[in-house]
């Protein structure tokens, strides 16, 4: 399937949907050549693109309604796929659990070659040291005493965000729906809830230690103690490694939403895509808009150029991403199956795919020439 | 028509007394070497779960498509033994005997 002119190039865009995976390459992040659907009739809730070590590996979390979840990988941009015979992510027998869905696949930093993290349903965090071919369950989080009190968001109960600290290999943050933010400072042996200031308005105590439904967290590229969170109502920033969170929702048309993105190099820049409210899950006024802050959440600016209006579909938590190019590319897909790309940090968008199944995950990378 | 495989599959324990035919759904045939039908040699009192263990030992990915890590059948996978849903009998403990047919079918699910 080709959209636009022949544009095979060094920008890769991966779009996971409810019924398959599409892979596109482009020279300009506006005109793409796509292949797909790969894995027709499988939902693709998670994609990891690992460009470390001189090769591009695509890891895809698949899930068939009939045949269950698995992780497949491709080292040739989707021409062929491999799957470990016994599965990349399988629960140890003593847990009595079975994998439901892989929600996030997150390659670690360039310095930690081979390390890939995964967040899964049931709520669990996994670590691979062989490039995502096999993952090991993090027992510290699995055995956490809060586990019995964690709840489920509408989409399921999962650890959906894993953020290894680039500066400290012992520090990792995860976000759980519905459990909130947890931090490990000892390489995953133990985990502490870190939700002070984040609202859980749907609970009897609206500011509990844990139980928040944090939808997505993203880390500042230069200061690992600064993170941004899109909550189930509420947009926050922490400046102290998640010890406390401050509201930065003022200036947004709504404080609900699923996405949170930070710039690959520039501190203070983040993007959200607001949704009107928990009970009205459409863009505010049915006007799709990306909102960007360049001052760490003190102010926000709506970016709409190129977005088709009206829009009644939302953008899910992993259906938006940035790449590492200069200027940064911004990409997202809606539950209505429209995928947009911006080569200029959101100033202008191009519709690059349309009428797909619900978009669940979007990832982008810059390939070596 | 189903093509009939060679008979590489053997019940691991006990004396074998005959074969059970396993019909593989089209979507999963690539995971068992392209076969539409597998033949398993079985002994007296072989449980359906044991037969799946044998198949899964030779075709692990196929085995994972049918069952969760706990060994339970996936929710939308049905297995019929001579036309009877094993869930309506004794589940994976249902005993299969030589000459019977085991059919793997995906149930209606999704949208």
From TrEMBL, chain A:
Source superkingdom: Bacteria
Gene3D superfamilies: YVTN repeat-like/Quinoprotein amine dehydrogenase
Bilayer-spanning residue ranges: none
Record SUPFAM superfamilies: Oligoxyloglucan reducing end-specific cellobiohydrolase
InterPro entries assigned: WD40/YVTN_repeat-like_dom_sf (IPR015943), Xyloglucanase_GH74 (IPR052025)
Protein name: WD40/YVTN/BNR-like repeat-containing protein
Organism: Arthrobacter cryoconiti
């Amino acid at each position: 399937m080709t959209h636009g002119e022949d544009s095979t190039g060094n920008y890769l865009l991966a779009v996971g949907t409810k019924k398959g995976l599409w892979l596109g390459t482009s020279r300009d992040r506006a005109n793409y050549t796509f292949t797909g659907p790969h894995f027709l009739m499988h939902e693709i809730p998670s994609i990891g693109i690992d460009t470390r070590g001189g090769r591009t590996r695509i890891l895809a979390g698949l899930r068939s309604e009939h045949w269950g979840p698995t992780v497949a990988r491709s080292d040739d941009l989707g021409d062929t796929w491999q799957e470990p015979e016994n599965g990349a992510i399988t629960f140890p027998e003593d847990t009595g659990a079975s994998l439901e869905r892989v929600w996030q696949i997150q390659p670690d930093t360039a310095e930690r070659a081979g390390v890939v993290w995964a967040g899964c349903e049931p709520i669990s965090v996994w670590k691979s040291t062989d490039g995502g071919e096999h993952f090991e369950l993090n027992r510290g989080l699995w055995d956490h005493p809060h586990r019995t009190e964690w709840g489920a968001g509408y989409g399921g109960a999962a650890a959906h965000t894993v953020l290894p600290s680039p500066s400290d290999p012992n520090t990792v943050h995860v976000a759980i729906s519905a459990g909130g933010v947890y931090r490990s400072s000892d390489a995953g042996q133990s985990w502490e809830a870190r939700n002070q200031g984040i609202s859980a308005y749907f609970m009897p105590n609206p500011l509990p230690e844990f139980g928040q439904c944090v939808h997505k967290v993203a880390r500042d590229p230069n200061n690992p103690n600064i993170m941004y969170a899109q909550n189930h109502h509420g947009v926050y920033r922490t400046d102290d490694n998640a010890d406390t969170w401050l509201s930065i929702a003022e200036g947004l048309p709504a404080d609900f939403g699923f996405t949170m993105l930070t710039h690959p190099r520039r501190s203070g820049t983040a993007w959200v895509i607001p949704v009107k409210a928990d009970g009205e899950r459409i863009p505010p006024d049915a006007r799709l808009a990306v909102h960007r802050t360049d001052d760490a959440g003190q102010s926000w600016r709506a970016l709409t150029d190129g977005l088709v209006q009206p829009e009644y579909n939302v953008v899910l938590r992993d259906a938006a991403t940035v790449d590492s190019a200069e200027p940064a590319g911004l990409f997202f897909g809606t539950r209505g199956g429209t995928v947009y790309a911006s080569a200029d940090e959101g100033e202008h968008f191009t519709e690059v795919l349309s009428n797909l199944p619900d978009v669940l995950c979007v990832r982008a990378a810059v390939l070596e020439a | 028509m189903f093509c009939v495989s060679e008979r590489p599959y053997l019940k691991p324990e006990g004396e074998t007394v005959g074969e059970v035919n396993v019909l593989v759904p089209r979507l999963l045939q690539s995971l068992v070497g392209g076969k539409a039908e597998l033949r398993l040699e079985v002994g007296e009192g072989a449980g359906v779960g044991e037969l799946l263990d044998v198949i899964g030992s030779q075709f692990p990915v196929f085995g994972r498509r049918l069952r969760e890590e706990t060994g339970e059948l996936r929710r939308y996978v049905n297995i019929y033994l001579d036309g009877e849903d094993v869930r309506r009998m004794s589940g994976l403990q249902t005993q299969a005997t030589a000459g019977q047919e085991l059919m793997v079918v995906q149930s209606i699910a999704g949208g």
